[in-house]
Amino acid sequence: MPGYYDDNFGMWDIEDEDDVRFYRELQRTNVEKKCKQCGRMVSIQPQYAICDSCATKIERGMEY
How far apart are CA 60 and CA 25, in angstroms? Predict the structure, then answer.
């Protein structure tokens, strides 16, 4: 099972070819921008403001 990582959703464990195609299409529509939480340059969807790492930390109750 190949693993894929991106700054939108974190780690993806993909087995199905349709899911691989969806993942690759998502990557094509990403833009490079600075995460509003950590300040790191990330490749995320245009409508997102923070990366997956920061979103996960916020969901777990960490504050910036």
Answer: 29
